[in-house]
Amino acid sequence: MSLLRAEGLGKSYNSEIKVLKDIHFEIGSGEFVSIIGPSGAGKSTLLRCINRMVEFNEGKIIFNNQDIGKLNKKELRKVRTNIGMIFQHYNLVPRLTVIENVLHGRFGYKTTLQGVLGRYTEEEKERAFFLLEKLGIADHAYKRCDQLSGGQQQRVGICRALIQDPALILCDEPIASLDPNSSKVIMDHLKSITSEMGITCLVNLHQVEVAQNYSDRIIGLNKGEIVFNGTSKQLTQEQIQLIYGSEAKDLIMV
Ligand code: ADP
Fold first, then answer.
1. Quick one: which atom of ligand 1 is closest to the CA of 38?
2. Which of the listed residues 138, 165, 192 is the one where a domain comes to its end?
3. Which residue's CA is minimally distant from atom 19 of ligand 1?
4. Domain match, 238 and 137 both
């Protein structure tokens, strides 16, 4: 079943250069899909067009049968509760505790006043602890986030996304700031979120090998265009060359 569809998506930040050109793809419910491509290819822009953190200029994004481009502010806020997001630099509030940061994920469900006052139900708090437990960081619940390692902070970021109860999680370079061990922990968690909870993950990655190890499908971007859309097995060295151009020689494993 299709959860997300892009139809002729186009984006330019200024009128001169098109950062995304005629992007078409379809992602099914429960799929784990990576977007790879060189720096500046448009990966981050593409991800951010999906929840309109970046406004696109052309085409359509259809999420859960809703035309995202047509939503007004209130409708968009509602749809965004269904789309979690994970960032390279975690985007946590450093001086707040782990549990407070996780509960922030419920913000979209609250009135502004409830949100500002930090009013959360017992059920929400229990769910937050359950998720922290699941991600193996419940022991840190009352620590300030800035006392945690990068890998631990990213796990808080994942809990914050999960507590939204999303159908889709967008992950923008989730392991780019992490060492290999922490990266593996994060990727394993993201993968199990898809397989165990049925949540669709769309992940921007810089590492081809990681994309190949974890993804049901890989989308390759080059200069704002999709030049590959297939399974890990279909991603041959020629395809990697096509996606990365001259950078490919550093990426192809021999
Ligand atoms: P990637 O994630 O693949 O590195 P980005 O989506 O970040 O690519 O960037 C694609 C292109 O859009 C780059 O040329 C970048 O300089 C440009 N770009 C990204 N964000 C902005 C912005 N806010 N204003 C103007 N240009 C931008």
1. 3
2. 165
3. 45
4. no
Pick left, alpha or beta for residue 64 (phi over 0 → left; psi -120 to 50 → alpha; otherwise beta). Answer: left
Q: What is the pLDDT of residues 36-66, one digit of tens each?
A: 999 999 999 999 999 999 999 999 999 999 9
Q: Which residue is closest in CA terms to ligand 1's atom 22? A: 13
Residue with tokens 């921007």: 204
Closest CA to 96 of 23, 163, 156: 156
Residue nearest (by alpha carbon) to ligand 1 atom 7 = 44
> Which residues in the chain come in under a pLDDT of 70?
115-116, 249-254
- Which of 165, 182, 209 terminates a domain? The answer is 165
Distance CA 126, CA 93 (A): 21
| One-letter identity of residue 194 | T
Task: Provide the token pair at 7.
Answer: 């139809």
Nearest CA to ligand 1 atom 21: 13
Number of domains in the chain: 2
In the predicted model, what is the mean pLDDT of the chain?
A: 94
Radius of gyration of the chain (CA): 18
Q: Which of 12, 13, 50, 205 to probe ligand 1 with, by most ligand atoms within 8 A of CB?
A: 13
Which atom of ligand 1 lies closest to the CA of 48?
A: 6
Sequence-distant (≥ 6) Cβ neighbours of residue 161 within 8 angstroms? 84, 85, 86, 105, 169
Q: Could you tell me if 120 and 225 lie in one domain? A: no
Burial of 121-145, coded b for 16+ CB within 10 Å and e otherwise, reads eeebeebbeebbebbebbebbeebb
- My answer on whether 78 and 172 are in the same domain is yes
